[in-house]
Write a structure and sequence with these properties.
The complex is a heterodimer of chains A (about 260) and B (about 60).
Chain A: E1 2-4, E2 7-9, E3 13-16, H1 23-33, E4 37-44, H2 51-61, E5 65-68, H3 76-90, E6 94-97, E7 100-102, E8 107-108, H4 110-122, E9 126-131, H5 135-144, E10 148-151, H6 165-174, E11 179-183, H7 189-197, E12 202-205, H8 207-210, H9 215-234
Parallel strand pairs in A: 3-4, 3-12, 4-5, 6-9, 9-10, 10-11, 11-12
Antiparallel strand pairs in A: 1-2, 7-8
Helix pairs in contact in A: 1-9, 3-4, 4-5, 7-9
Chain B: E1 2-5, E2 8-11, H1 17-23, E3 32-35, E4 38-40, E5 55-63
Parallel strand pairs in B: 1-5
Antiparallel strand pairs in B: 1-2, 3-4, 3-5
Classes of the chains: A alpha/beta (about 260), B mainly beta (about 60).
Chain lengths: ~260, ~60
């Protein structure tokens, strides 16, 4: 069970709902993943098409919690207004807070992120900040009242996995009791398993499933990897060593030389 | 008057935001609104009067990562 602002969620896999070949394939992938939380966004609605209404009906039918995001926001003001609008539309005070600072890497603007988090927490939001492994930013976010942090593994959509495992390990060690989710950059189930083995509470991914040849099958693979990684963490893995250590007992070996 | 609806100029007769939304085809739609970058909650729409050139954003749930 992972805990998000006091809410316990069975699955440690969180899934995005974007980029799937079709809404039906998205729904199949969400079901196959076993995810209890999916991310969603807010976009301009055309009066004639009402695409958003159909999407919302489909998501509600999946019986999962939604985590709305502020994707694409580059300023504190934009992110705060988007969060306020999301709270009304989705009926949740959970918000995945993204304040983007750099276009090529979609690197979070950590200064804007802290400022926006302060504003939103004062307004009663439960903020899930999309951040980096930066320890000082993490401290500021926690001081602002964040009970969950979501450091990136690699740039969004890059599929590179955990590019700074040392930084992620350090973050985990500095905040042993905080809910930490590796969000973004995960490309393969082994990346997700590695994050879980390091003691992260959950992983959030989207592109790795949505852009797979068979998204539902990949969602299943991720579900197992996340579960395996968590089991391994709980089982307290051995420490690596430089030299060999025989696993077969030496005592009682025949002398045949 | 002309307002900017989701980035595009649109003519609208009604002044009150709730009436303007109905006129623009959003009657009963599950949407959130902002005028000139400020969030306008659903129950505050009737009290907001649109003016020439106002920027109205009408947003709805969509896929996200």
């Amino acid at each position: 069970m992972a805990t998000f602002y006091g809410t316990e969620v069975e699955s440690r896999l969180m899934l995005g709902t974007a980029l799937y070949p079709s809404p039906a394939i998205m729904a199949a992938a969400v079901r196959a993943s076993g995810a209890g939380i999916v991310t969603v966004s807010l976009r301009r609605e055309a009066a004639e098409a009402r695409a958003g209404q159909a999407f919302w009906e489909m998501i509600r039918g999946l019986g999962v919690r939604v985590l709305p995001n502020t994707a694409g926001c580059h300023s504190v003001r934009e992110a705060v207004t988007t969060a306020q609008m999301a709270r009304e539309v989705f009926g949740t005070d959970w918000i995945k807070l993204e304040v983007i600072g750099e276009e090529d890497t979609l690197h979070p603007d950590l200064f804007g992120l802290v400022e926006a988090a302060r504003i939103l927490i004062a307004e009663g939001f439960k903020v899930f900040p999309y951040t980096t492994e930066d320890l000082v930013a993490a401290r500021r976010l926690v001081d602002a009242g964040c009970e969950v942090l979501m450091p990136w593994g690699a740039p969004i959509g890059s599929g590179q996995g955990l590019v700074n495992p040392h930084g992620l390990r350090t973050l985990r060690a500095h905040f042993p009791d905080l809910t930490l989710v590796v969000d973004a950059g995960i490309g393969l189930p082994s990346h997700a398993a590695r994050a879980m083995e390091m003691g992260f509470d959950a992983v959030l991914l989207n592109t790795a499933v949505a852009k797979a040849g068979d998204p539902a099958a990949m969602a299943r693979a991720f579900a197992r990897a996340v579960e395996a990684g968590r089991l391994a963490f709980d089982a307290d893995p051995m420490e690596p060593r430089d030299m060999a250590a025989p696993s077969t007992p030496v005592m009682g070996k025949a002398f045949l030389g | 008057m002309t307002i900017i609806l989701n980035g595009e100029p649109r003519a609208v007769a009604a002044g009150a935001l709730d009436a303007a939304l109905a006129e623009l085809g959003y009657g009963g739609a599950h949407v959130a609104t902002a005028v000139n970058g400020e969030f306008v909650p659903r129950d505050a729409r009737a009290g907001i009067t649109l003016r020439e050139g106002d920027r109205l954003e009408v947003l709805a749930p969509l896929q996200g990562g």
